[in-house]
Amino acid sequence: MTSKRVYIRTFGCQMNVRDSEIIYGLLIERGWKKAESIEDADCVLFNTCSVRHHAEQRAYSNMGMLAKLKRRRPELILGFVGCTAQKDKDIVFKRLPHVDLIAGPGEIYNIPDYLDAILDGGEKVMAAGMPERPECKNPLYRENKTSTYVSISEGCDNFCSYCIVPYVRGRQRCRKKELVIDEVRSLSLMGIKEVTLLGQNVNSYGKDLKDGSDFITLLEEIHTIDGIKRIRFVTCHPKDTTIRLFKTMRDLPKIYNHIHLPLQSGSAKILKAMKRGYSPAHYLGLIDALRSYIPDCNITTDIIVGFPGENNEDFKDTYNMMKRIEFDSAYIFKYSPRPPAESSRLVDDVGADIKKERHAEILKLQKEISKKKRRLRKAAVLPMA
Ligand code: 5AD
Ligand code: SF4
User: Do 127 and 172 contact (CB within 8 A), yes or no?
Assistant: First the structure.
């Protein structure tokens, strides 16, 4: 048993937040302690994200800065894990020679063994062969004792042309329904009141399980678990989102009235080039239907500006659609090519200045809309207070 301290810095999405928690849980089971800071740690892991160029570069430069610390404390173990570690497995040791461990998202259950091997004086470890992770019972360790994430699937089958996820997290594998239910039940017995179900595309839950389960039946079953008072989920893909989901959200009171439904673009041409599998008209139809079932549903989205070939007209389509829908909030990203994702083979022809301008324009619009929506929501709840 070791009593060494580990510090994990997380980049990227909720999947990564949850993965970091799993790594902490596995290490704590082996006697490790959680360090409060990098200075206080015997091992520092960066759980990296590769979805956009910017986040990736931040992880590289922050890990680069730890070279000095490693020179001062050569026994400090440094690990570069997660999505960028998977994508760049062959270059991380060259770019960051002071790093001891590279481990892709499929390897998280093995990290304690790899750290033991390094501690025993072994060589550096590079473990990023397969992005797919085995189906495992996750540790119940949770940082937040009332609200927590529960992963229901891993990876993605959609292959949106801009997206790197299928290459770093592999194809979609759903966790068996019994395993998910068992985890939520155990969490409820520990006092957890709110669960957020996590998947790259929660609506396609069950497709590979071939046991008749789907996302709605999973929601219905979780809804019967006594201690759980609120259920959330991310992310929904518009092409797989159905009216049945909206009815379920309306009828099951524990389901929180929020949907994150990434639009990405309001241009039919760009959506096609992104291989999103829906048109702007289909998306608008979903929003109208959702609002007819749940008028006050909180709706959030993701937008990419500056995808290859996006001209002023395409951009205006996105702008007008956002104006029409009035999302409660939106994450707005500037496109960056992510090899080997398909669109990285297209010319990144929208200049940096134009991307910046479009980003600022949409951000300004959304800020006004978000402010207005907050005001309206406040006005709607205040009289009842
Ligand atoms: N460039 C910019 N944004 C991207 N996203 C995914 N890939 C890229 C890319 N290559 C955004 C999408 C996605 C969110 C998680 O990140 O909007 O929904
Ligand atoms: Fe999450 Fe995708 Fe980033 Fe991986 S690449 S951390 S799955 S957002």
Answer: no
| Among 51, 338, 355, residue to substitute to test ligand 1 (most atoms within 8 Å of Cβ) | 51
Is the Cβ atom of 163 under 6 angstroms away from ligand 2? no
Alpha-carbon distance of 274 to 141, in angstroms, equals 38
Give strand pairing partners of 101: 79, 125
pTM of the predicted structure, to 2 decimals: 0.94
pLDDT mean over 99-122? 95
Residue 51 near ligand 2, beta carbon < 6 Å: yes
Nearest to 307 by CA among 197, 168, 162: 162
Q: How far apart are CA 103 and CA 111, in angstroms?
A: 7
pLDDT at position 122: 82
Q: Is the CB of 307 under 6 A from ligand 1?
A: no
Summarize pLDDT for 268-319 with one digit per residue, the tens: 999 999 999 999 999 999 999 999 999 999 999 999 999 999 999 999 999 9
Q: What pLDDT band is residue 382 in, cutting at 50, 70 and 90?
A: low
- Quick count: other Cβ atoms within 10 Å of Cβ 371? 10
For position 217, what pLDDT does the model report? 96
Looking at residue 385, its pLDDT comes to 41
The 3-state DSSP class for residue 382 equals: helix
CA distance 206 to 217: 10
Reported residue count of the chain is: 385
In contact, 327 and 366? CB cutoff 8 Å: yes
Residues 309, 345: Cα–Cα separation, whole Å? 13
Q: How far is residue 143's CA from residue 115's CA, in Å, rounded to a whole number? A: 22
